[in-house]
Structure formats: C-alpha cells, structure tokens
Design brief:
Elements lengths: L10 H18 L10 H14 L8 H19 L2 E4 L2 H7 L3 E4 L5 E2 L1 H11 L6 H8 L14
Antiparallel strand pairs: 1-2, 2-3
Helix pairs in contact: 1-3, 2-5, 3-5
Length: 148
C-alpha cells in the first residue's frame, strides 16, 4: 500500500512521487536534494530529525514514503537501477509493493531502508552508506558461466 493515501503504489509511479516530494520539500527550504549521492546524507539528517522531533511512523508516513522514493530514484539515476514491481514472494519478504533492481539483478527496498533508519537511528542504517555499499558491486560469473 502507498503509505500516504492507501493507493497501491507501482513502479511507474515512483519517479513522479520522488519528484513531487522534492518539489514540495525544497519549496519551503534550500535542502540540496539534487539526486546526488551526497544528498543521501541530507536524507539521513532528515530522517534523524523526524525521530528526534518526536514523530512516530504514522505521523511521518508521507514524508518517509517521499524520502524512500527519493532514495530509490537516486539509485535509478546514479547507479543504473530500475524501479520494479515486486512479485508476490518479494512483496512478502520486503513488505512493500515496489523496489529497485540493480544492473547486476539484485533487488532492493529503498522504502524499507528509510523506515529502518527511522526506527533504529543507527549509523549503520545510513542511507548514504547503503548506496555506497551496493553501487558498483557486480556478481562475477563462475567457471561454468553461472552468476554467483
């Protein structure tokens, strides 16, 4: 479900959702949300600010969804990922209807990553670190040509 309004979110809506979020947030402030890798540090600060400000998940739902769409869109624009609709097994595993597929075939859940950062507040759940740990990692074919 779309965290903001109860609609089912699909992959084709995510770029629009990210763009609308950036437009709305940057209209009120000069946040450098420019889809750069460095801007993911700003996302970490925003999520931490929500936590420290006393917001609960329900109260921050729309903002967290927007931040998750933004993180996914950074992966799309900077790491060659593509938005995908999860199949039933992936939906059950991730608890979300959409995510991103990296060029090496791995799928990730940026919406869930933002929620993890919100829930934990731990440095190891940094969204900038998340990007840096998965960008560019390619699976290598084995001697038999099978991707490991």
């Amino acid at each position: 479900m779309d965290e903001a309004d109860g609609r089912v979110t699909c992959a084709r809506e995510m770029r629009r959702l990210a763009t609308a979020f950036v437009t709305r947030v940057t209209a009120r402030s000069r946040l450098p949300l420019d889809y750069s890798v460095a801007s993911l540090r700003v996302v970490d600060f925003l999520v931490d600010g929500l936590r420290k400000g006393g917001a609960d998940r329900e109260g921050a739902r729309e903002t967290l969804l927007g931040l998750g769409a933004y993180v996914g869109e950074v992966l799309v624009r900077r790491a060659g990922a593509a938005w995908v609709d999860f199949d039933a097994d992936q939906r059950a595993f991730f608890g979300r209807p959409v995510g991103v597929r990296m060029p090496d075939g791995r799928v990730w859940n940026p919406l869930g990553r933002v929620l993890n950062r919100f829930d934990s507040g731990l440095p190891e759940d940094s969204l900038q670190t998340f990007y840096l740990t998965l960008h560019g990692r390619l699976r290598r074919p084995s001697a038999q040509g099978v991707v490991e």
